[in-house]
Write a structure and sequence with these properties.
Elements: E1 4-6, E2 16-19, E3 23-29, E4 32-37, E5 40-43, E6 53-59, E7 63-72, E8 78-89, H1 94-99, H2 104-119, H3 125-130, H4 132-147, E9 152-164, H5 166-181
Antiparallel strand pairs: 1-6, 2-5, 3-4, 3-6, 7-8, 8-9
Length: 182
């Protein structure tokens, strides 16, 4: 979801630009935000050698970020929780999405880690597996509330994996093996 610098469609000038259907373009005149452009061919304003008018873009597509959080459960088992967050830019807040945050993914990482580390430690390992949906809902609610201020819509936050420490997995497998042998 990184923003990009864009160039006009004519060499040595940024007067005209073709805006793709899947992007939002912001026009900057001498470094100051001027206006947003719609998809298609647009006239951005007079420009001399590409120094008066510049463009920034951000995609309108849904982007997925997978966040990995290491935490401890109530029964002192260390787990790695992977959360997939699907987000996109709100069309009416594209300016906020471009200019309010410098690193969207780092901000989402922080919010996801905060929610996971505040909810999973109150659960046992078995509860954590059973209540993955509760953690997903808590993450989605927090992200929807917080990232809306920055021009982002959260479509879904899913706990895709909950992996205990390798030693714990081996111990659990050994216990199950012993039960089957009886």
């Amino acid at each position: 979801m990184a923003q990009q610098q864009e160039r006009g469609c004519l060499p040595c000038t940024n007067c005209f630009v073709t805006v793709p259907q899947d992007k939002y373009y912001a026009v900057e005149s001498f470094g100051k935000f001027s206006h947003m452009l719609k998809p298609g061919l647009s006239f951005a304003g007079p420009d001399c050698c590409g120094c008066c008018v510049n463009f920034r873009s951000v995609t309108s597509r849904v982007d997925q970020l997978v966040v990995s959080v290491h935490t401890k459960t109530k029964d002192n088992v260390f787990v790695t929780c992977k959360v997939a967050v699907q987000q996109s830019v709100l069309p009416d807040k594209a300016v906020d999405a471009m200019y309010k945050l410098s690193d969207v993914h780092a901000q989402i990482d922080s919010y996801v880690a905060d929610v996971v580390r505040s909810s999973v430690p109150h659960m046992t390992l078995d509860d954590a597996f059973e209540k993955k949906d509760d953690v997903s809902v808590a993450v989605q609610q927090k992200l929807t509330e917080e990232m809306g201020h920055y021009g982002f819509q959260i479509h879904k936050a899913l706990v895709t994996e909950l992996v205990p420490n390798a030693e714990v997995v081996q111990s659990m497998n050994e216990i199950n093996k012993q039960k089957r042998l009886r």
